[in-house]
Amino acid sequence: MSKAILWLNELDREDIDLVGRQAADLGELSKIGLKIPRGFVVTNEALQNWLSTSGLEEKIKQNLRNLDWDNPQLVSEFSILIKEAVLKTPLEKAFQASLEAASRKIQKSSKFISVQTSPVKDQDTSTSEATVLNNPSPVKILASLRQAWALLFSAESLRGSRTLPKGAVIIQESISPTTSGLAYSIDPDSGDKKQVFIRAVWGASEILSVDSKVGDTYLVDKTNSKIYVSKIGQQNLQIIKLAGKDKELPVSSPFQFQQKITAAEIENLAVQVKKVENHFLRPVQITWAQDEENIFILSVKVFETPTPLASVRGNLLTLSLPLLSSGSTGYKGLASGPLRSLASLKNLHRVRGGEVVTIKTLTKNLLPTIRKSAAVIIESSRQPQNQALLEKLAKPAVFVGDKTALKERQIVTVDGGSGKVFSGAPNVGSSKVIDTLRKTLLTRSANEKTATGVFASFSEPSLATEIGQKNIDGVFFKPNESKTTLDIASVFANQPFIFRLKYSSESFSTTLESLKSARAVGKNIWLALSGAKTPQELLEAKKAITSVGLHRSESFKILLSIEVPAQVIAIEKFLEAGIDGVCIDEAALTKTLFGSDQQTVLTRLADTSPLIRSFEQTVEAAKNAKVKIFFVARAGYSDQDLIEKLVDLGITALVVNADETERTREIVALAERRTVRNKS
């Protein structure tokens, strides 16, 4: 069993199939320097090997094939039998010895140990609450591991997967917090990504599932980590972990209105949240806990950010649909499907993927089945415990009091953002819907002119005519070595045509001659000089440019491509040498700055702040010199936050792939309108 037991600090997201996302993310946090409770993982490989060598695998598979899934009673009885077998079947001696050795290591630093399953990538049904053990012996830890494995074979899990379950088990220190809470890198209500949103309570954060409004709320500015909102909330009750168990106890009167954590601790948390967000390159929610000495990160949830188009898509698509019922929002999102009523647990096995499920109330036992659904309609009023489960479910959901208009198997659309249920489903693939989207949103964004320009980048001359029809402010031509034709510049006669030329190339002089000839026809050609890594090389290149009769003017600009850190450091000297602007090459600068390819940096790098500072330093110097600033974005560009930041910094234009100009214009337009509102 080479990978039966792994320590959390050994893991990263490449291990998701082995240890599950929860454990893999804890490993990622550890590797970027955040403090997590010490622990290890009994991997899914260990479970599968044991099932195979013990003979349980074949027995379980045979019964799964013959099981009558339409009979809930039989499924439940089968689940009980498997659990009993899991708890009684012996483990391999070598594995048992390894587990005991690992357990002793964490017992040296903690009296309390938690045991919890970690769902693997394709097995969402294997969630469980942590079992906390008080000063356990290795034998007790082994027994808790068996119990965690047995939970994987619950009737709900079997009914949801109908195959041999997969799962890992996390065994780690259990923190007895004095304070704890949640922290978001995005406002969970407004979606504002420029602030860190922090909740703090006395005791364990589980109290927030009982009363979502209890405790303190802090808002921290992401740019400087300064607190600008500090709302101290009354807290009468707290959950304290005593002897490994949760106890609900009153908060002493002097502490009920007291701030839960200090300003320094709030700012420290905000810094950690930003670090996690920078690592995953997505908005995040972290669960944190503080003991007498340290703040620990207990878990992280990574969100997918909707684009500006997606944020209004729901309203546009449901405009023409009849309203059936209106209530309150449960979980944002839009989904359609046939209605399935779960009036009784006996109907659980009937739920099929893509259906919209109606239930009286949401419970933890229902999660495995409902994960297959497209959306959820809950008949009860909005409750904190329901809200916590919906966060786990992550499906569009609404709370409605009146469901008389909802008929079984009727096609409905659930808009979680507005709390409404509509009759029918929008034809999202039809040209009519796409036209509606474009007319209502893109006429104000992608089709409008913006103060920040949008240039199309391309390297294939045959695409010039097609690109010339786009709503762009110019083009950035990066020719292949064998295709340096400049005849296509005439297609963009009324717009800047920036031609990228490498100074160190053998064809530098001959290409300059071609450039001069092309300018005789088209006066719109500018030059982006690549490969000039020192001010001296820039001067030499300019001398060569001048020698062929090309001189800087209103119609001929020389831009310097910023590709290496040395250029950023000496940016003032480059500007003094005489240029008309800079082209910040994101991909090249990232690769040279971190010694890694662009994709690796974006998915693995813990701290991208040096990269951002390089951008800011270059832009500031260029603005002081009153020259043009172009940002040449990486291929597959989608970083909305960085686009907004560059707009705020005041760059001249963004250079993106030709097929990304429309979306980029959309983001730029929205960012500029927000900037105007903020200044007014």
Automatic annotation (TrEMBL):
Residues 17-298 form the Pyruvate phosphate dikinase AMP/ATP-binding domain. Catalyzes the phosphorylation of pyruvate to phosphoenolpyruvate. One of its GO terms (molecular function) is metal ion binding. InterPro entries: ATP_grasp_subdomain_1, PEP_synth, PEP_util_C, PPDK_AMP/ATP-bd, Pyrv/PenolPyrv_kinase-like_dom, Pyrv_kinase-like_dom_sf. GO terms for biological process: gluconeogenesis. Belongs to the PEP-utilizing enzyme family. It comes from Candidatus Woykebacteria bacterium RIFCSPHIGHO2_12_FULL_45_10. Its cofactor is Mg(2+). This is Phosphoenolpyruvate synthase. It catalyses: pyruvate + ATP + H2O = phosphoenolpyruvate + AMP + phosphate + 2 H(+). Its EC number is 2.7.9.2. Pathway: Carbohydrate biosynthesis; gluconeogenesis. Pfam families: PEP-utilizers_C, PPDK_N. It is an enzyme of class 2 (transferase). Keywords: ATP-binding, Kinase, Magnesium, Metal-binding, Nucleotide-binding, Transferase. Residues 505-670 form the PEP-utilising enzyme C-terminal domain.
